[in-house]
Amino acid sequence: MKITASAIGLLAAIPSVFGLWPIPTSHTEGKSNSQVWWVDIQVQGQSSPVVRDAVERYRNIINSESFLAPVDYKRGSTDEALGLETDESYTLDASLKAKSPYGVVRGLETFSQLVVVNTPISIKDAPAFPHRGVLFDTSRNWYSVDAVKHTLDAMSYNKLNVLHWHIVDSQSWGIERAAYSDKQLYSYKDIKDIVQYAKNRGIRVIPEFDVPGHTYAVGLSHPEIMSCLDVQPGWDKYAAEPPSGQLNIAKDGSIEFAKKIFKEYAALFPDNVIHVGGDEVNMRCWETDPDVQKHLAANKNETVESLLLSWYGKLHNYDTIVQTWIDSASVPNTVNRGYRAVSSDYQSLYLDCGHGAWLPNWDGNSWCDPFKTWMHVYNYDVLANITDPAKQKLVLGTEVAIWSEQTDEHSFDPRAWPRAAAMAETGWSGKKDASGHVRTTGEVASRLHEQRYRMVGRGVNAEPMQPLWCARNPGRCDLP
Amino acid sequence: MKITASAIGLLAAIPSVFGLWPIPTSHTEGKSNSQVWWVDIQVQGQSSPVVRDAVERYRNIINSESFLAPVDYKRGSTDEALGLETDESYTLDASLKAKSPYGVVRGLETFSQLVVVNTPISIKDAPAFPHRGVLFDTSRNWYSVDAVKHTLDAMSYNKLNVLHWHIVDSQSWGIERAAYSDKQLYSYKDIKDIVQYAKNRGIRVIPEFDVPGHTYAVGLSHPEIMSCLDVQPGWDKYAAEPPSGQLNIAKDGSIEFAKKIFKEYAALFPDNVIHVGGDEVNMRCWETDPDVQKHLAANKNETVESLLLSWYGKLHNYDTIVQTWIDSASVPNTVNRGYRAVSSDYQSLYLDCGHGAWLPNWDGNSWCDPFKTWMHVYNYDVLANITDPAKQKLVLGTEVAIWSEQTDEHSFDPRAWPRAAAMAETGWSGKKDASGHVRTTGEVASRLHEQRYRMVGRGVNAEPMQPLWCARNPGRCDLP
């Protein structure tokens, strides 16, 4: 399909700034600035509901966009003098072509960022990595449906395309059962609404039902299939965080339960990928469980680990993508064994780190100190130590993780943005420009400042990166 | 004056929770729970504009309060059955007495927190420290007038009583001149508005005009009285942060300028205390300045340090309170020399720490890592190592500092709250209860959770302290 946009423009002297985020694969800059006054977007040829929704959305975004990029703050008002010498010329047609409705969505975001800058003549753009996500944890603290949609909007401004929805955990089962309250869960209707909202923005929703660890909440309705449920005091011997509770891998009821929920929820979420968790299993929890002990006594060739592995094997035998987080070797290890990998290396991509410990009687630091700055996020190279192109292809991309033990909708925006935008660029644009030069944070700061102010203008409470003076004076707040 | 509040109450079974913050000096708990349905507050006897404003404000706060304390989430709906056995009794008059309008303001806040809990019969309350402040930096990033007022509201919910307004710095002179733009400064009208708003909440506004360091912004209009103005590259040899610039202490024009602005701004702010800064002066800046070098060549008995001291001496010879931040010895050192002290010990009270460095070409940590959790803030003892009661009296109190290099109104609330509330309690209630027991963070966590949810209900985007499950299950997320 083809979109044409007609922008009625006025040639005026505007400080040139090329503020696209993420930066397109290639572009050719135009020679003169145009200030765009009105945009109308029309679809020619075949269309689709996603495209029509996107066109309507971006028409509104563009026509109500009012943020001023920091370097433009001293721009004076437009000259409306009328006389013999008034320049009445106008121009600019932009044509947007794409192979899928979602390419259109991506292109419309770029177009929305273009309309106030030195307008390039031609952009050719495509993502370096197909999986660019946010691990969104609504189980540790509550997020309203509006808050989820707000996050999807913010993601769409950055061409992020996966919402890895960590929707249940020990602290709540926030989908239709065992949630905080009947006001704090997502009904099936809510989920369909959110999935459609995401789809309109070209965002896949991949839900996670973390098993067999992190499952205290299951014990509220199914205590008989649990191990080490809410051990008090002393949860710390049985779990990574309180309250303790894991599915009892020696009981058939636990695998029946797990298969049942995956069958039910897989039908609810249209994506062909579902996340089964497997995070932070605690071996002592099972070693001390009477049913596990009985099973091992009767099956001397088995261990807790082999029992766990066979439990996983009973749960599913689907093609598996591995999400890694625990160290730098994980991604190479995964692809070297032939599996596809998505990285959330905690050293760079865990955005919750550096906020102190959260047990109220312990004055300690966060386990994954320090705080990861946008520069640190941006500098992450998911292909580090992977030189074989065939193996590189197995790296699907990255996800920033925003674990919510200390975050909810009242603090999410500044926690997530603009740091997640930093990863959005390396995910979309890769680490290098066309000449092979690795982009540095000093070089990209101006554009990210602009993206931050753009996002604020669109209602996202992204935090500032620096003093405003520094945003307005690029390069003058660098480390010499 | 005397305030009476009539609350029409209904005896009902409500889980008992005593959620006042900060905790009063003393209280006697009542024996039965009352759920309060309507509050009317009347003033008897003498009144004042501050009192009338506060009464109106708290009447609205109380009658629109809708937050649910986390431990109450499972509370069912009220029994409206009507029959022979219905209990029709009602009671509760509360009488609030105070010696100043600001005692009334404090008492009304406590009353607003009481109306949904086990209602004490009697509270007697007074602050341990007279200075309990927020160092509010509107110079590194911009805050609208509404954002300033919003912060004053949040402070009033915590009985904080000083807004230390860091209103100018190198990066902007946000008051009537040299501001970011003519839309981003505080006019004298704005300031009077804010000062009155603060006064209604019993909050003093103490402005700071930091001299002679941190004054690049002065150089925009008075370059002739400056030293080391905007050295690029290499600002880091001449200043703690970019851009560099200090008042030239060898030029009479600099002291004339400083005296002029203090005279002008002292007339604008009614408090009898004004903050003259003196922070982070860089000696090399002056050592390399030609005017300073000329002065020292002609005055061989002087040094840069003595020149600086005599500059301060020319600026003012008023009674001085010292605000300390740099180490634990500062407070004892100050009071042992007979000066009054206000502490912002960075190790506990700098709330901006732990957010990484902010120079875009340097992937580093914040200089004052790690992040200070609410527990760490709460554990701070400003009287540590000061045993002489006469010296203890010289400690006026504490201020949390929220430096804004990486914060503005889009991220301020979660950055400040509820951590500043932790300091608000130690400032109002002291470290110990009446028996001499030092309150621990494990003991107070429930009440602070409740204060956090109360603040959220009142429109302050305080961040969550823990997973919601932990807030609802006190003691079950403690470190064993």
TrEMBL record, chains A, B:
Alphabetical list of Pfam families matching this protein: Glyco_hydro_20, Glycohydro_20b2
Catalysed reaction, written as an equation: Hydrolysis of terminal non-reducing N-acetyl-D-hexosamine residues in N-acetyl-beta-D-hexosaminides
Glycoside hydrolase family 20 catalytic domain mapped to chain residues: 129-316
One CC-aspect GO term: membrane
Domain named Beta-hexosaminidase eukaryotic type N-terminal: residues: 77-114
InterPro entries in UniProt: Beta_hexosaminidase_sua/sub, GH, Glyco_hydro_20_cat, Hex-like_dom2, HEX_eukaryotic_N
Leader peptide range in chain numbering: 1-19
Keywords: Glycoprotein, Glycosidase, Hydrolase, Signal
GO molecular function, one term: beta-N-acetylhexosaminidase activity
Annotated EC: 3.2.1.52
Main EC class the enzyme belongs to: hydrolase
Residues at the active site: E280
The keyword Hydrolase is assigned to this record: yes
Biological processes, Gene Ontology terms: carbohydrate metabolic process; glycosaminoglycan metabolic process
Domain of life: Eukaryota
Stated family: Belongs to the glycosyl hydrolase 20 family.
PANTHER family: BETA-HEXOSAMINIDASE, BETA-N-ACETYLHEXOSAMINIDASE
UniProt-recorded name of the protein: beta-N-acetylhexosaminidase
Organism name: Linderina pennispora
